[in-house]
Amino acid sequence: MKYTWEEFARKMGIEVGRLENREAKELKRFVDELTAPTHCRFCQGLDLGIENPVHHPSYELTPACNHDCIFCYSNVAVKLGKAPKPGYYGWENPKAITVSQYGEPLISPRIVEVNKMLRERFPEARLDLQTNGSLLTEELWEKLDFDLVMISLDASTREGHFKITGRDTFENVVNALRIVGQDKRVRSVVRTIFMPGINDDDIPKIAELAASLGIDEMMLQPLTIHRLNEERLRKAGLDFDRAESVRELLKAAMEAKKYIDVRIRGCLLVQLKKMDALTLYNVYKVSRDVAPLVKRRKLDIEETCDGGFRSFLEDVPLDRLESSLKRRGIAYVRTEAFIRFSRGGVEVTVFKNGKVLIKGVSGRTEAEEILGEITG
Questions:
Q1: Per DSSP, which regions of 184-308 are E strands?
Q2: Is residue 5 part of a domain?
Q3: CA distances (Å), 274 to each of 1, 292, 314, 337, in order?
Q4: What phi and psi values does residue 364 have, to the nearest 5 degrees?
Q5: 17 lies in some domain
Q6: Residue 240 covered by a domain
Q7: pLDDT tens digit at each of 376 positions of the chain
Q8: I need a surface site. Which of 128, 183, 219, 246 has the fewest CB within 10 A?
Q9: Final residue in a domain of this structure, among 290, 310, 341
Q10: Is residue 270 domain-shared with residue 121, that is, in the same domain?
């Protein structure tokens, strides 16, 4: 005979109410009602059936940033020499592209050029801009063409903003939220990192402020604690234990939900939805044990002395490339060592060992586009 958990508890002489955790049930209901952030749509991390998911593509403009945030993974990547070089990191026919995952894209003088290039090259893709907002002006906004804009804000006051970013740019960021929030042609998102002990009280205030400026959505993200940032976070007052608690993250999201459409990272959310209430209430290590590692393929490219470009790809079987060229009706020559094809005066040679040579392109941007097609 099967029993419900309540019936089983009574048979064991245990009062049902002692096993019932009302807060856990409330969190479970909240999670079940949440939807993934708009930015996360089309990311493979939403599909638990994919063993090694990858993010949708990104275009990296620069690892440099005018902020110096105490939690920043981009700073860590720069210090370790692992920051991606400028260029397109993705494949052919993407559904979404982010500009960019590292550094502050609006620092780059190429932001308008790259935005236009991506729109022309990938007309069907959703283009997402991820920025700290401090350099966004009305004049620049008129030149940009994105479908979704994420602006980072982790404090509700000028003083708190300076404590986290090291820069006195709070009013600039608020103005950027106002600019984007007024433009209903785009999906506007305020992106906030949950740092208990540092910005607990700020999160609902940020949500209220963003909503008042017309922002559509808050993307509340758990803090990923990098070893090189630990001391700065500790000095700022981070509660490390609470920072890795799903319960604490969800409680903060529930408070923000009173003011704005709040969402949490999609690859985390799909995992949480599979948990029962008590597991959800007690699970820890948000960014290390729960969310799947979502990788992005790198496409490093460098200029050669004769004006061409070269790169090295780890996983492009010649058979797959040959099938792609046949399908697209592109003429090619194949030997045991390489495949060579031409397209509009551009000559591309892909070697069996992964080396790629591109000649006859107008510049780096065109070479990056071709390299993206090869890896598609």
A1: 187-194, 217-222, 261-264, 301-303
A2: no
A3: 26, 14, 35, 48
A4: -60, -40
A5: no
A6: yes
A7: 555 655 655 665 555 454 557 889 999 999 999 999 999 999 988 988 877 777 889 999 999 999 999 999 888 888 888 888 888 888 878 999 999 999 999 999 999 999 999 999 899 999 999 999 999 999 999 999 999 999 999 999 999 999 999 999 999 999 999 999 999 999 999 999 999 999 999 999 999 999 999 999 999 999 988 888 999 999 999 999 999 899 999 999 999 999 999 999 998 999 899 988 888 888 875 543 344 444 455 556 677 767 788 887 655 678 878 887 888 788 999 998 899 998 778 899 988 877 888 888 877 777 777 776 665 5
A8: 183
A9: 290
A10: yes
Give me the half-sphere count of Cα atoms (radius 13 Å) on the Cβ side of residue 176.
24
Q: What is the CATH number of the domain that holds 365?
A: 3.30.310.10
Q: For 224-258, give the DSSP string.
A: P--GGGHHHHHHHT--HHHHTBHHHHHHHHHHHTT
226 and 127 co-located in one domain: yes
| Residues 270 and 154 both lie in one domain | yes
How is residue 40 written in tokens?
A: 């996360």
Residues 313, 374: Cα–Cα separation, whole Å: 9
The total domain count for the chain is 2
Scanning the structure block, which residue is given the tokens 């070269």? 310
Kind of pairing between the strands at 217-222 and 126-131: unpaired
Range of the domain at 324: 301-374
- In angstroms, rounded to a whole number, what is the distance separating the alpha carbons of residues 65 and 128? 18
In a 3-state reduction of DSSP, which class is residue 339? strand
216 and 135 in a single domain? The answer is yes
Going edge to edge, which strands form the sheet with 261-264?
87-89, 58-60, 96-99, 126-131, 148-152, 187-194, 217-222, 261-264
| pTM recorded for the entire structure | 0.75
Q: Identify whether residues 239 and 130 lie together within a single domain.
A: yes
Cis before 100 (ω within 30): yes
